[in-house]
Design brief:
The protein is of the alpha+beta class and 501 residues long. 38% of the residues lie in helices and 30% in strands. It is built from ten helices and 24 strands. The chain is elongated, with a radius of gyration of 53 Å.
């Protein structure tokens, strides 16, 4: 029993000794771990211990890396600034400048009209522009002397017609008979006059002959008027009187209402539109031979909505001029014409609620050509031609204006391209000598814009005024310049000018 108890006591002692040993060992280890931060003095950190030196070098390397990263970030930021600056320019070579057809100039300053664009068409003046030439007598067309499009001149012959009108032939026959009887009576008076003087013949015989001659003269006058009323021209009647022959062929000339105007100040303007006959064709009196156009003066028929009537009324009251835009004009007289408003129609179209108004349009010959002795003229304005009219609405004083092609509108922003001139201190170190010109966008505020012009709102912008009045501006192709600037900014081409780092 005692041996067993001792054994149990020894076992307990051994366990207790092991526990104490474990606790002591943990305390020692904890002391060793905590000793560098709690036991050593600050100067030990700068000791000659190689391990401490290695830790210091590592710390210094980390600090250097941080400084280098900071410098590289500054370099990247500077590159971004250069890139942003590059995006605000577009560089053009001489070849690109020529391909664009770029026009450079200064901003214009002055008065400008705000206008309202309305459609219009060229129409003929009723009763004046569209005329007709009819057959004066019944007959057969022997010859056509004119061609469609040929311009008429004074005393020109249009057609030759062989007269088959029986009434005209009969009237001419009676006229010739009257002339013959007059001639016989005059001869008889000449023969009897000496006999009457000598008393051999009674004076009553001579008096009867004189009375007969008066009757024949009256009959002659009546027949001449009848021939003229039947369509025989005065020249043909005079020919019958002089030659004592029937007029069998008739020369058709421009009617008197045309010929009288051709002999006035407006000697030109009449031309043959359409031919209705051909040689050998039989025509009756009054049949249409051809149509003649008068294009020296025409009408412009404009169309506006009923709500715009107050604009038209104000134009009439203040005698403002309406501007005619003719973009197809290729002559030196210019494309715009200023004309007064003639009249406003008194009717409003029920379907479209539009009102028409008229402007008298002076026309002009742009080209003459003579072929086989015939004159052909080409007119600037033609009936049926579509044009635009600009109605004056409001006038602005002392404003900056540019062509519409000079402005780019991108969303809410608008800007123009101004020639960029480098200062000496800003001159790039490695410039591309192929670049002819650099342009930069300058933001503007629009006061008014239409299809041809832009008015810039000034608002006492001193910086903008100095920029626009001292530098040249691209007057056209601003949209293409904008696309080129975006391509150069994205690296899609073009020339970049920046410093090498």
């Amino acid at each position: 029993m005692s041996q067993q108890g001792i054994s149990r006591a020894g076992l307990r002692a051994l366990i207790a000794a092991g526990v104490l040993t474990l606790v002591f060992g943990l305390g020692t280890a904890a002391g060793l771990v905590l000793s560098p931060s709690t036991v050593h003095a600050p100067e030990d950190l700068h000791s000659d211990d190689p391990h401490s030196a290695g830790m210091s070098d590592l710390h210094a390397e980390d600090e250097g890396t941080k400084d280098k990263d900071h410098v590289d970030q500054d370099h990247i930021d500077e590159d971004h600034e250069d890139a942003d600056h590059e995006e605000d320019h577009v560089a053009l070579t001489a070849q690109a400048y020529a391909n664009l057809g770029l026009r450079m100039g200064m901003v214009q300053r002055g008065d400008h009209w705000k206008t309202q664009l309305v459609p219009a068409r060229v129409v003929e003046i009723p009763g004046r522009s569209d005329l007709s030439v009819s057959a004066p007598v019944t007959g057969i067309v022997q010859k056509v002397e004119v061609l469609p499009g040929q311009s008429l001149v004074s005393d020109s012959t249009l057609f030759s017609i062989r007269i088959t009108d029986q009434a005209v032939i009969d009237a001419q026959s009676r006229l010739l008979e009257t002339l013959t009887r007059q001639e016989v009576a005059n001869q008889e008076i000449t023969r009897l006059s000496p006999l009457v003087t000598s008393g051999a013949v009674s004076r009553n015989k001579l008096r009867d002959l004189e009375y007969e001659i008066k009757q024949l003269s009256a009959q002659q006058s009546t027949l001449v008027q009848e021939l003229r009323s039947r369509g025989l021209p005065s020249a043909s009647v005079d020919q019958v009187l002089q030659n004592r022959e029937l007029a069998t062929e008739l020369k058709v000339s421009p009617p008197s209402f045309i010929d009288s105007e051709m002999n006035s100040e407006e000697a030109s303007g009449f031309s043959v539109e359409d031919l209705m006959v051909h040689p050998g064709m039989s025509v009756a009196r009054g049949d249409l031979l051809c149509s003649v156009a008068y294009h020296s003066r025409l009408y412009l028929e404009g169309m506006a909505f009923q709500d715009d009537l107050h604009v038209l009324d104000r134009i009439m009251q203040r005698d403002w001029m309406v501007v005619v835009d003719d973009h197809s004009a290729e002559h030196s007289h210019g494309a715009s014409v200023e004309l007064p408003l003639l009249r406003i129609d008194n009717h409003v179209d029920e379907a479209t609620q539009s009102v028409t108004f008229f402007v008298e349009l002076p026309n002009e010959v742009t080209r003459d050509r003579v072929s086989d002795g015939r004159l052909f003229q080409q007119w600037r304005f033609r009936p049926g031609q579509r044009l635009h009219l600009r109605l004056p609405v409001e006038q602005w004083k002392d404003q900056w204006t540019l062509p519409a092609e000079a402005v780019v509108v991108e969303g809410p922003d608008a800007f123009v391209f101004v020639e960029h001139i480098h200062d000496e201190e800003d001159e790039p170190e490695h410039d591309d000598h192929d670049v002819m010109i650099e342009l930069e966008p300058v933001p503007i505020r629009l006061l008014y814009r239409d299809d041809r012009i832009v008015v810039i709102q000034r608002d006492d912008q001193q910086d903008l005024e100095e920029e626009l009045t001292t530098h040249r501006v691209a007057l056209n192709n601003a949209q293409k310049l904008y696309l080129a600037m975006k391509m150069q900014a994205e690296g899609g081409g073009g020339h970049h000018h920046h410093h090498d780092h």
